[in-house]
Each structure stands twice: as structure tokens, then as C-alpha cells.
């Protein structure tokens, strides 16, 4: 799940660090868009791609692999 997006980030992390350190990105396939904060990234990702179809990643030197899954299901 989201392997393509994770691989894209890993392959481009150095270049992204030079230009976009600290920014948040929505990555879907190889489509990449920067945002100033996670909330903007999430709202845009849901609107443009739908839940579960995009990765939100902050550009940092140390990769933090934190996975958050959002669902509308009520338990």
C-alpha cells in the first residue's frame, strides 16, 4: 500500500531537502505537490485523490515513518 509513493520520496529525498526542507507534500503515484502544513496537504489529498490513495510526507533529514490512516467508518 502506497509503495510507489514511498519509493518516490526515498529516491528524491536529497533533492527535496535542498529545496523544500520542512514542507509537507502530497504524493500520489509520481504526482507531487508541496504545502505549508499537514492540514492543507490532507484536505487537498482527499479532495484530489480520495482517502487512502495518497501519501503525506514532511521533508526532513531523518525519515520518520509514521503511518496514519483515516476512515469514515464508525466502530
Structural features, described:
This is DUF5678 domain-containing protein. By secondary structure, this protein is α+β, with helices and mostly antiparallel strands. The chain has two helices and three strands, in the order αββαβ. It has a three-stranded antiparallel beta sheet, sandwiched between helices. The longest helix has 18 residues, at 3-20. The radius of gyration is 12 Å and the shape is globular. It starts with a helix and ends in a 17-residue tail after the last strand.
- Shape by Cα distribution: globular
Low-confidence stretches: none
The percent range for helix content is 40-55%
Biggest sheet, spatial arrangement of strands: 2-1-3
Q: How many helices does DSSP assign?
A: 2
Count of structural domains: 1
Question: Major sheet: size, sense and barrel closure?
Answer: 3 strands, antiparallel
Question: In sequence order, what are the helices and strands, one letter per element?
Answer: HEEHE
Instruction: Quote the average pLDDT.
Output: 84
Return the structural class.
alpha+beta
* Gyration radius, rounded: 12 Å
Outline the secondary-structure elements:
Layout: H1 3-20, E1 24-28, E2 31-35, H2 38-49, E3 55-58
Antiparallel strand pairs: 1-2, 1-3
Core attributes:
3 strands; alpha+beta; 75 residues
Task: Please give a quick description of this structure.
By secondary structure, this protein is of the alpha+beta class. It is built from two helices and three strands. It has a three-stranded antiparallel beta sheet, with helices on both faces.
